[in-house]
Every structure is written in C-alpha cells, then in structure tokens.
Amino acid sequence: MTLRERARTWLNTIPVRLQRRAQDYLTQDRLHRRLRLGDHTLAAELIGYQDTYHMALTTGIQYELTCSCSLPSQPCVHAVALVLDVDRHFQDYTEASWKACLQAKDALSRWPFDEGLDWSLIDKARPWWRHAYQAERLEAIREGALRPPARQGIAKDASLALWAELDPSWLSHPAVTDAFRIWLDTRSPVVPQDWPLWILLHWMQPLLPLNAIFLSAVHPSRAAQALLAQMHHPAPLIRPTAQRHIRLLEDITLLDPDLANPLWTLAEGLDPYHLVQADALFVANQRKKAIALLERHLPNDKNARRQARRRLVQWTSPEDSVPHQLAMAWESGLIEDLTSIQHLISPQTWDRVTRAIQTDPNASPKDDWV
How remote is the C-alpha of 334 from its chain's centroid? Predict the structure, then answer.
C-alpha cells in the first residue's frame, strides 16, 4: 500500500470534527514546504495560530504520524492536516532541494524536524522545473545552459540546482538533453574541489549523462572512494533507490573497475543479467572484461539473452562475432540476424544454416558451421 493509500485509509478513522479543524489550516493556505524522504516518509511545515510546526507521516514496518507540537492528544490537528494534504496534493511532495542537501552535509537527518535540517532551505512551493515537462519552459532551460561557467568550478553555478532538481520527465526530451550537454561541455575539466558536487548531482539526478565527467578524473581512485562513501552514507537526505545505487556503481566502474567488481557482486539483484555492468566496463575501455562477463553469464531469460548477444556482436571483431550471430539467429528463428555475416561463411554453410533454422527450430547449431 502506498503512502497516499495509507493516508486515505487512516483518514477514515479520524473524527469528522477533527478533520474539519485540520481543513481550516489548508483552506487558509498555512501548510507548505512539502518534503518527501524516500518512499516511506512525507513531511511538511504548518504555520499555526501560535507557532510553526513540522509534521511527518511515515510508513514501513509500522505507520506513524508525528508532530513537533506538545499537544497531549494524538493525533493532533496538525498531523491530521498533513494527512489531508497528502491525499490532495501528493505530487507536490518532492525531495529536498539542492541547497538543502549542501547545507545539511554530514548532519543530514533521518528525522524531518531534527535541528540538523534547516526548514527555510526547503522550497515553500514546488518550482516550475520540479513539475512535469512543460514545452513553454524550454527556453528557460536553454538560457541556463548557455550561462558562462564560474571561474573557480561549479560551486556557484546558477544552473546546478536546476539540473539536480529537474523532474525526470524533462530528461526524456532531446532539447533538454542537448541543453545539458552544452552546459556540461563548458564545465570541463573538473576542478578537484568540485568532485563532491558532481557526485551529489548524480545521486540526486541519476538520469543525467555524466560519463565524460567521471572518465576525466585525474585521481580516479580518490573519486571512486568518494562515490563509495556517498552510496553508504548513514542517513542521506536524498534516500537510496535502486536506480541511484546502480548509477553510482557505473560511475565507480568508470573510475576503478577493480574496486567496483565486488560491489557488483553484492548488488547482483539490481543487475541480474550483468548488462549494466558490462556496459560500464565497455565504456571504461575494459572491452575484454565486458565480453568475458557476458559470455560467462549468458542470461536464461530470452529477451535479456538477446540483449547480451547483441552486445557481444557489437563488441567483437566480425570474425569473432560469427558464433554469437549464429546463436542469436538460432534463438530468434530470424534469418535477418545472419545477413551481416553472410559474406564470412561459405555458400554451402549459409544454405545449411538457413534451411535448418527454417525447417527444424529444435535442432542445435553444429560446430562445423562456424
């Protein structure tokens, strides 16, 4: 059950009188600074009639509502206002802003209203770039990409927060990814003190194409260790997800393949067919290791196996790719998979192979066909 579904269910247990009092806060627009922490916690700030309160709704092993007020009766009216708001404005609960993450650093908190979190750094309302893609805003994205870089790295780059916080739906549009590449090209080479910022950027926005940045590292082992520290931060304000872990594993592979190898083993559930790891090795100029990895772990899943075969065909020489091309055609039953190697095998073998694929799909490839 999602957080929103749990909120709706829980509201059914709250007296109508208390819900009406809580609704007054929302009608008067007193609830803002909405915050999402991973998949299990939503929090917000409420300006009360006498004080300011911070409430959190957490699900997981158990369902919990908390508030910074000292009212003895629980749930309090502030917490009920939060649940009402979650039900109606769920999409407005976004992860922490770039500036909040920079401010928090090592004091990042699991608890939304600990002293370690400065609530003034949480956006009072969701800015336009944190909404789904809007074509009319493209020009603003382009303008940000064309701003000249700061002289001393990206720490004061006005566009950095936008890229870190951008709703993922924007990154599926070529105009946006082109703008990002323009911005990225003018931010190289990387200044050493900026590495924590690049790592945080990729943690917050794992869809950004940052291979060129990590491949340019002057001290790759140091950068890899910093990435490892980010992955295992004890309490990140931006909570871990499978996508974030897999992206940072790719980054570590680009920097230090030997350090990354045991980490991939531990995270095998995130990349069960070894396709992502193989891609990262290939980009890191470890072609032989990428090929050996896929040949050693050819997937049993039909679709994944075909993806692995295609990589092996692309990454090997035309002559070495012949066995993989034959196997792919045999597994798919498509003669089209063989057309690129027709000139590499004799006419007699070509006739035997194509006839066998068309007439006897349960047969096995013969060794003398290669």
Answer: 35
Pairing of strands 52-58, 41-47: antiparallel
Instruction: Show the domain range for 37.
Output: 3-92
325 and 312 fall within a common domain: no
Nearest to 37 by CA among 105, 112, 89: 112
186 and 216 in contact (C-beta within 8 Å)?
A: no
Reported pTM: 0.84
pLDDT in tens, 269-312: 999 999 999 999 999 999 999 999 999 999 999 899 999 999 99
Q: How many CA atoms lie within 13 A of 255 on its CB side?
A: 26
Query: Residue 33 — left, alpha, or beta (φ > 0 → left; ψ -120 to 50 → alpha)?
Result: left
- List pLDDT tens digits, range 124-182: 999 999 999 999 999 988 887 778 777 777 888 888 999 999 999 999 999 999 999 99
Q: How far is CA 323 from CA 74, 267, 352, 355, in A?
A: 69, 30, 15, 17
265, 189: one domain:
yes
Same domain, 63 and 17: yes
Residue 212, Cβ density class (10 Å: 0-12 exposed, 13-18 middle, ≥19 buried): middle
The DSSP bridge partners found for residue 42 are: 36, 57
- The length of the chain, given as a count of residues: 370
* CB 85, CB 44: distance < 8 Å: yes
